[in-house]
Amino acid sequence: MAQKKSRSKQSRLESAGAGGATERYLLKLYVTGATARSLRAIANLKGICEEYLKGRYHLEVVDIYRRPELLSRDQIVAVPTLIKKRPVPLRLLVGDLSRTELVLQGLGLVAHTS
Q: What's the predicted TM-score (pTM) here?
């Protein structure tokens, strides 16, 4: 019988290096007011950060209705958009961030699967 290739979340984080145990993440999430999609993106991201980056991240949530000037500065064309500024490389993730595995890959917390 073939052996399963399934691994726990913890072992995947360890194998990907998990960005280093002390590396701090600087994240900026662009949303459109208090829409359902924006609130879902905020909740999803906070949950992921608390589970995988507890004590190692700073999250800034930007409402584009209140700060529209930041759209052109950060070249935002769709919302919700998450920008991972640190650690490098810079990454942009668009959507409600409900697909945890893809968010973790985008943040560099797990290796990309083929």
A: 0.79
In whole angstroms, give the CA distance from residue 39 to residue 58.
18
Q: Counting beta carbons within 10 angstroms of the beta carbon of residue 10, is it exposed (0 to 12), middle (13 to 18) or buried (19 or more)?
A: exposed
For the segment 18-25, the average pLDDT, to the nearest whole number, is 73
Query: Any idea which of 14-23, 33-42, 65-74, 83-92 has the lowest mean pLDDT?
Result: 14-23
One CATH from 3.40.30.10, 3.30.70.1280, 3.30.2310.20, 3.40.50.2000 for 24-106: 3.40.30.10
Domain boundaries, the chain: 24-106
